Amino acid sequence: MSSSEVTIKGKHGDFMAYLSGPAGGGPGIVVVQEIFGVNKWLRDTCDMLAGKGYMAIAPDLFWPIQPGVQLDPMVEADFNTGLDLYGKFNVDNSIDDIQSTITVLRGRDGCNGKVGVTGFCLGGLLTYLSVARTDADAGSAYYGVGIDGLLGEAGRIKAPTLIHIADEDAFVPKEASNQVREALEGHGVVSVHTYPGCNHGFARDSDANHYDKAATELAHGRTFDLFKSTLS
Hints:
232 residues; Rossmann fold; 8-stranded mixed β-sheet; alpha/beta
C-alpha cells in the first residue's frame, strides 16, 4: 500500500487530494470529508479502504476558502472553525470538484475505471448529490445533513446508492429523517438503512462519545458489499 498527496486540476482551480491505494491498484473510491477537512481520521479511512483493495482519494473541498484544513472534532475550537468554514462553503462548486476527482481517479494507472463515492456528515450530503450529478458508479452516504431539503435530486440518481441514517442524530431531526425514508422508499437504486440508538458520527472511531462499533461494522459491511458488486 502507498499513499501521497496529489494535485487535482479542477474546473474552478487546482486542489490537493490524499490518495491511498494497494500496490496492484483496484477500483476507485472518492472519500468525501466532514466539515473537518482532510484530517487524520479521513486519511485513516482512505488507508482502511486501500487495505480492502481500493484506490481511495479524499479531495480537499475547502480549498477555495482555506486550503489544507485538518481539524480535530474533539477540540471545541476546531469544531467551531469547521462550522464557520461550512458557512462559507459552496456546495455546487464542490460537486464539480468531486467530478474532477472522479475523472482523474478513473484515468489513473491502476484504477479499473470504476469509481464510487462515500462520505460522512457534510460528505454524506455531498455523496447523495454526487450520485445525482456526477458519473459515479455507486455511492454510500453516512448520516448526511440536509438531504431532506434536496429530495428533488433523487430522480436523477441512476447509480446504486446507500443512505445510512443515525436514528438519534443530533443534527438531523427525526422529521427530516422520516422525510428522507418516505421519499426514497421504493426508489429503484437507492436503499435507506437506519441505525437505532446511534448519534451523528457513529462511524468515527476517534470519537468515543458517538462511535458505535456494531453499527459501523454493519454499515461498512453494507458499503463493501455494494462496492464489490458495482465496482469490481
